[in-house]
Amino acid sequence: MPRRIPEETKQRAIRLVLNHLDEYANLTEACVKIGGQLGIGKESLRRWVRQAQIDGGQRDGTSSDVLEENKRLRKEIRELEEANSILRDAGGFLRGGTRPPIPMTIAFIDNQRSKGHRVTQICDVLTGQGLQVSARTYRSWKTATPSHRDLDDAIIIDALLATVGTPEGMYGRRKMVAYLRRHGLVVSARRVDRLMRDLEMNGRVRGQGVRTTIPDRSAARAPDLVERDFTAPIPNERWVADFTYVRTWAGFVYVAFVIDCFSRAIVGWHASASMTTPLVTNALRMGLWRRDQAGHPANAGLIHHSDAGAQFTSVSFAETLAMEGIAASIGSIGDAYDNSLAESTIGLYKTEAIRDDSPFRSGPLKQLEDVEWVTAQWIDWYNTTRLHSRIDDLTPDEYEYLYYANLETPAHTELAPV
């Protein structure tokens, strides 16, 4: 029997759509995007949001005053960009503070000329930004033949600069090589290292972890069924869970995660203003529901592993696991290595999604809803786009897709020798 979507997951989806509806062209587009990230059908989500709008007295959706104000602001921004196009483009072209290859410089000047700017004007802007180039130098470059190395470097640098400000811009040297190769570029690790060093591009470095688990030493604990082996031959065999905190203007928000050891996919998550048992229970229920929706339900034999936090050793959570037929596994008290996969995933979350310079943030985290929005965006990228070295530089979704595709491919019958 199909599971019903958890009420908290449903309400969170409604909040995300209502809070960010003005960022989309219409309600349908918002429901398609956010529903896809949360694994919820667009028609169901749209129906829920419409009902919420009726309940809140907002039957007509976004007011015309808001739309008109957005239109006016966009017009002002467009006029500002046109008035400062050379300086703005030069700022992006010279990001990193190093001298770009000659082919890239020529291409930039050609592009600005196509917008109606004079060569001398373009060169003056570049010179003012630290790139010494004159109109005569540019014209001499136009008649010369660039080297193959310069041409190849220009293509790779262009691809590297395109990742700045995107989640992929957080990749380090090794993962950036895999990313560029996936996009059809023939690159070596040495060349990428040299160019990233020249551009002063570095991968995101994790900060020091902070302890959030408060163990209940008096509670009865399940045995450790994992014993630091955070691998699994198939999906839905071993899940690990943990939670962390995020500072907001309104106070602390706690975010719980459930991760599948097979693919490193985050199958469930939940955010709450309180650090109680429902925090981890709702994350587990979301994971079970999402697996059901994907057509790959978690069956008997699933192990749920966590640390010895009071939320995981509570009677209520133990009863939830028992009702779902899930075996509980708990590591020792005070040893982060006993739940290192969950700790590592939370470290990525804090580094890639929560830091002030995160590409998933557009402003300060003021309240619970802001954390939910950033978390939903990051988990969607983490599962569908982010490359993971532990699974052959694939994404979790790709890794699981290949697993199930191999199961569905019939084996060839071998003919006995005559």
Automatic annotation (TrEMBL):
Signal peptide: none
Coiled coil among keywords: yes
Domain named Integrase catalytic: residues: 231-404
A Pfam family: HTH_Tnp_1
One example of a Gene Ontology biological process annotation: DNA transposition
Keywords from the named record: Coiled coil
SUPFAM superfamilies: Homeodomain-like, Ribonuclease H-like
InterPro entries linked to this entry: Homeodomain-like_sf, HTH-like_dom, Integrase_cat-core, RNaseH-like_sf, RNaseH_sf, Transpos_IS3, Transposase_8, Transposase_IS3/IS150/IS904
UniProt key word Coiled coil: yes
Coiled-coil residues: 63-90
Function of the molecule: Involved in the transposition of the insertion sequence.
Name of the protein in question: IS3 family transposase
Organism: Flaviflexus salsibiostraticola
